[in-house]
Design a protein that fits this description.
mainly alpha; two-stranded antiparallel sheet; globular
Amino acid sequence: MKTNFINHLSAEIRKLKSTPIIYLIVFCCAFVLSIVMIAHSLDRNSVVLGADPWRRCFSAGIGIYSFFVTVPFVVLLVTAVTFVEQRANAWKLLYTMPVTRGSIYFSKLTIIILTVFATSFLLVFALVGAGYVLDQFLPELEFAYYQAPVYTNLKNITHGVIALLGVIGIQYFLSLWFKNFLIPISIGIIGFILAFILTTINTKITLYVPYSYSMVVKDYGMFKLEHTKGIWNGWLTNVELYSILCFVFFVGLGYFYERWRNVE
């Protein structure tokens, strides 16, 4: 079982080369970095002397990433990972191989989660690079006079990824249930738009929409979140716990479906 899982994990990594996932990761990071750098360049006259510029840089970068990028990124990522088999109608071939369905199912899920973590961590280090680039062209921002809080923001973005687990579980189940990739993408985008609207109007209903959890897990100062922001319960917030429960439910449901379905 362990060997099958590792082998399938390696196979899934190789399959990524035939998908646009690498381009998707680069686009997401470049999108966030470009907005942060343009905003700093246009707003250079409002710099407060003696204030840590890294706090503003990371808050803006991770805030933009959490509100506008993460959910669409996950929707497209999950669809891309599962569409390799859906497009080629290769599920029957996979299930005739001497491997368990669990190995196939969980190897794909593991690749999705690792990709989301890797992209999020990459963004943190990319923001550090963006800060030093800005310091070369706009030394008045004083990035060089302060230490970049990398560890703190790696922890912050980890909470954001945990808050995305619910969306990953839902989209993974939908992508396996529907052969047409447009249906899970459409549901995911509708969920994202609904979550964004609910978050901006600051309603408690937001806490019941998993697509909003990455937006409210931490207050980035972009919208008023006094009614929806995460409440800490030890190391995790309430929305992270909801996300984990949603993830477990839909992953379990998806595994049950994959375990017993007949592939024609």
